[in-house]
């Protein structure tokens, strides 16, 4: 979405380097919005495509449908790897992104590793998972936090500080030179989203994250989507929605 700071930076960078930017038409309430988007992509034939996981998940659904068609034509006894390869080849012939794409960026929400692997196999190009917010700027790229950015994971109310296996889990909080000072005219909102930690001021992203053994940070869920069960356990439905 053009309201995202990342999108605006990406557009400016492309234009400053002499590139062109295609803007998709939008028809409010149109049931064929996705079909219209795909038609526009065919016309623009982008070399770099950035979208949210929801868009890429739609393509993953296309892949699953194509895999089932291959199973019907090749027979249920065909190995899954054969079906996967046949489905990907059929989709490549459809030139889904115009057959000129050199890189894919996904961001704006957690991206499942299986979806990233599918995109890499499908388009045979690098797939970059970006994580940022309008209030902070870039937080991590492929889970790697830049040196100029400090990320701490603070436990949200009712959640444990750590999970089994040695992984650190909590709300992702960010401190860097690019973090905003607050919300103009909204002291209550500013107070709710900023926290002091070890003498530094951090922005609460509202995202549940996990620091892996290799030091990378993975975004798991939006804390705002959580609900509490009768026994006091918090459940985060985002992954269930993605699976469905």
TrEMBL record:
GO cellular component annotations of the record: endoplasmic reticulum; membrane
Organism domain of life: Eukaryota
InterPro entries: AMP-dep_synth/lig_dom, ANL_N_sf
Ranges of residues in domain AMP-dependent synthetase/ligase: 1-184
MF (Gene Ontology): long-chain fatty acid-CoA ligase activity
Protein name stated in the entry: AMP-dependent synthetase/ligase domain-containing protein
Provenance organism: Alexandrium monilatum
């Amino acid at each position: 979405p053009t309201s995202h700071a990342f999108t605006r930076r990406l557009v400016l960078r492309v234009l400053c380097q002499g590139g062109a930017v295609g803007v998709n038409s939008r028809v409010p309430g149109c049931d064929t919005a996705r079909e219209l988007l795909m038609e526009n992509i065919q016309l623009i034939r982008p070399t770099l495509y950035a979208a949210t996981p929801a868009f890429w998940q739609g393509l993953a659904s296309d892949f699953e449908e194509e895999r089932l068609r291959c199973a019907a034509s090749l027979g249920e006894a065909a190995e899954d790897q054969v079906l996967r390869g046949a489905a990907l080849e059929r989709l490549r012939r459809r030139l889904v992104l115009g057959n000129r794409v050199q890189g894919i960026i996904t961001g704006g929400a957690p991206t499942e590793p299986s979806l990233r692997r599918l995109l890499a196999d499908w388009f045979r190009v690098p797939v970059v998972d970006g994580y940022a917010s309008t209030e902070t700027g870039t937080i991590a790229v492929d889970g790697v936090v830049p040196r100029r950015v400090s990320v701490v994971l603070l436990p949200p109310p009712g959640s444990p500080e750590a999970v089994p296996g040695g992984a650190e889990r909590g709300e992702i909080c960010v401190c860097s030179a690019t973090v905003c000072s607050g919300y103009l005219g909204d002291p209550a909102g500013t107070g709710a989203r900023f926290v002091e930690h070890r003498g530094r001021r951090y922005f609460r992203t509202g995202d549940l994250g996990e620091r892996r053994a290799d030091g990378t940070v993975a975004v798991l869920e939006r804390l705002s989507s959580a609900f509490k069960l009768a026994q006091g356990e918090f459940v985060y439905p985002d992954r269930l929605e993605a699976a469905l």
